[in-house]
Amino acid sequence: MIPLSRLALFVALVFLTAAAVPAHPVLAQRATAQQKQMEAQRAALYDYANKGVVAQDKGDLDAAMKNYTMFLQSGMLDPQDPTVAFVYHNRGLIWSQWKEYDKALMDYTQALNQNPNLEQTYLNRGLIWTEKEEYGKALSDLSRAIELKPDYGKAYAERGRVHRIQLKFRQAADDYTMALKFLPNDPQMYYNRGVAYLNYGDEDKAIADFSRAIKLDPEFAEAYQHRGEAWSKKNKKSEAINDFAKARELKKY
């Protein structure tokens, strides 16, 4: 499952007020009527965006999708309005949850066309590229997310995952090390780095990381399993047997 994060959308309605200028009474009435009509249309338009956010927060993805799509297909959007990018991003999240990855990519790309500084959108698009095994594109997006937000632990973690898939274990370990600077209490990060260390032959560092993961999560079966493998490579048979037994015990539940 792709861990997926969502931008919060805050929509402020701002309407222009007409300047006080002399005008023919009939023309002034018509202008006022047109202005009120435009304001009503604009309020209705942003109501779709807000309803979409509320529905998405409640987990009603069908309603959120409907409202976001009504907003985006209104034909009244200002390309400079940051709300447009946020709505594309949020709709992309729904497509991702529905595993409609091509549609998610389209919406994330539209969001970035509107606003190229959305680090969460680069992260999410990178996750989709990873799912589609487009690893070069994934690395590009994840690296861009890190450029925009140098303390983005999740982006380092996901880039590490791509390196690990590509069997680039030293690069993976480096990214997990960066991730741990910002996610210091995440047992999964220690486990992931431990796997990277184990795969390039540093059993001592692997054991240290698996032990840290177990300390943070005593029921982490895979950490016991891999620590057992590391002990086995060091010919520590007793320690290996104990860890394998603990892993089997935890996997029963």
Strand content: under 5%
| Residue windows where pLDDT falls under 50 for at least 5 positions | 1-24
What separation lies between the terminal Cα atoms?
A: 21 Å
Radius of gyration: 25 Å
Structural class call reads mainly alpha
Query: Which term fits the overall shape?
Result: elongated
Report the count of strand segments.
0
| Average pLDDT taken over every residue | 87
Summarize the helix and strand pattern as letters. HHHHHHHHHHHH
Main beta sheet: strand number and arrangement?
none
Fraction in helix: over 70%
Quickly list its features.
253 residues, mainly alpha, 12 helices
Describe the structure.
- This protein has 253 residues and is mostly helical.
- It is built from 12 helices and no strands.
- Helix 2 packs antiparallel against helix 3.
- The longest helix is centred in the N-terminal third of the chain and has 34 residues, at 25-58.
- The chain is elongated, with a radius of gyration of 25 Å.
- The model is unreliable at 1-24 (pLDDT under 50).
What is the topology?
Elements: H1 25-58, H2 61-72, H3 82-97, H4 101-114, H5 119-131, H6 135-148, H7 153-165, H8 169-182, H9 187-199, H10 203-216, H11 221-233, H12 237-251
